[in-house]
Design brief:
Helices cover 17% and strands 45% of the residues. The chain is an alpha+beta fold. It has a single domain, classed as 3-Layer(aba) Sandwich (Aminopeptidase), CATH 3.40.630.30. It has a seven-stranded mixed sheet, covered by helices on one side. A two-stranded antiparallel ribbon has the order 2-3.
Length: 179
C-alpha cells in the first residue's frame, strides 16, 4: 500500500475532489425482494451476478460536495505525495452518538490499495474523538465493492431506504460500534 496521509479538506481541495471519477465497476449488485403479507413484512437483499461488468454512476451530484462546507460536514482527504486521491464525508448531526460516513471516494487508479479502509478508519477515529459510540456507512445497493468493504471492516447490515437517492438507487446502511 502506498503511504497515505489523511487530513481535513481545505476549500482549495474542492476542485480536485470533484474531478475524481466517482463511478465504480462491478459484476454484482444487491437486489431487494420485499415480502408483504397480512401478519409479516420484510425485505431481503440478495447478491446477483450480472452478465457483464457495468459502470455504476454515483448516486448524488458531485457538485453537491461544495455544500459540505456549509453544513458542518467533515471532509477528510487521502493524499499520496502531493496528489489528492480520495475523500470521505462524515458528520455526527444525523443520529445521536453516531458518526455517519458517506461518500467514500477513491480515484480509480488508486483503488484496491487500502485507501478507502484508511479513510474509514480515520473517520471512525474522528467519531470516537467526538464521543460517538457507533458508525454508520451509507452506500447505494449497486456499489458491491463498497458493500464488501463494509463487511470486511466489521460493519453489519442495519437498514435500507428505497427512496434515498435522487437517482432512485436504494441506500444500504451498515453499522458498527466504535470506541
Amino acid at each position: 500500500m502506498p503511504e497515505v496521509q489523511i487530513r481535513s479538506a481545505a476549500a482549495g481541495d474542492l476542485s480536485a475532489l470533484m474531478a475524481i471519477d466517482h463511478t465504480c465497476q462491478t459484476e454484482y449488485v444487491w437486489q431487494m425482494d420485499v415480502l408483504h403479507e397480512e401478519d409479516q413484512m420484510g425485505a431481503i437483499f440478495r447478491e446477483i451476478r450480472l452478465p457483464r461488468s457495468v459502470s455504476v454512476l454515483y448516486p448524488r451530484p458531485v457538485a453537491g460536495l461544495a455544500e459540505s462546507w456549509n453544513r458542518r460536514w467533515v471532509v477528510l482527504v487521502a493524499v499520496i505525495g502531493k496528489q489528492t486521491v480520495g475523500y470521505i464525508r462524515t458528520t455526527d448531526t444525523i443520529l445521536p452518538h453516531t458518526a455517519w460516513l458517506l461518500d467514500v471516494v477513491v480515484s480509480p487508479r488508486f483503488r484496491r490499495q487500502g485507501i478507502a479502509s484508511t479513510m474509514i478508519l480515520a473517520a471512525q477515529s474522528w467519531g470516537v474523538d467526538r464521543k460517538n459510540h457507533r458508525a454508520i456507512l451509507e452506500m447505494p445497493s449497486k456499489n458491491n465493492p463498497a458493500v464488501r468493504l463494509a463487511q470486511k471492516l466489521g460493519y453489519e447490515f442495519c437498514g435500507y431506504n428505497d427512496q434515498y437517492y435522487d437517482t432512485q438507487d436504494i441506500a444500504l446502511f451498515f453499522g458498527r460500534t466504535i470506541r
